[in-house]
Write a structure and sequence with these properties.
The chain is mostly helical. 79% of the residues lie in helices and 0% in strands. The protein has helices at 2-25, 28-52, 62-73, 86-121, 131-159. The longest helix has 36 residues, at 86-121.
């Protein structure tokens, strides 16, 4: 009995994590950041190839430059291809910082997805209100304010 509950709990958690990951990976911000990140690596790799191909023996094809771009952006930095020109080194530094920022953004998106799921699970997620609900709420606030103003006026008139 206890063993069944143990496995049942892990099964439910696995399904929940898969659901969170699916919604995260298919979300617009995740897709937009992924496209932007790949575009950034492609741009830096192209620039690196243009700058380094003539002077760097390790950069023999665009694929070598693309390899360098992804290794640098992910901060893996294998060291098999390194820039030899000052411009290439500066380009590498910029790509390393950009890669770190991109992975921080992915981490934030993942944390947000988990927190959002927790808020839904415990029913503390703010529900979106329709326009009619908002208008009703504003109308109620208006009536409350008018009543409060009326009370203040009555109190002011009784004091004088």
């Amino acid at each position: 009995m206890i063993r069944d509950t143990f496995f049942e709990n892990y099964f439910k958690k696995g399904i929940r994590i898969n659901r969170i990951l699916f919604f995260l990976v298919t979300s617009t911000p995740f897709i937009a950041i992924t496209i932007m990140a790949n575009g950034l690596v492609l741009f830096f790799s192209s620039t690196f190839y243009y700058i380094e191909a003539a002077t760097n023996d390790k950069v023999q094809s665009f694929l070598d430059a693309l390899w360098w771009g992804y290794a640098t952006a992910t901060t893996v930095g294998y060291g098999d291809i390194i820039p030899v020109t000052p411009t290439g080194k500066i380009l590498g530094i910029i790509l390393m910082v950009s890669g770190t920022a991109l992975f921080a953004t992915y981490t934030a998106l993942f944390a947000n997805a988990i927190l959002e799921d927790e808020m839904i699970k415990f029913n503390i997620y703010p529900k979106k209100k329709s326009t009619d609900d908002i208008l009703k709420m504003l109308d109620k606030h208006k009536r409350d304010l008018e009543e409060h103003i009326s009370d203040l006026n009555a109190q002011n008139n009784s004091d004088t």
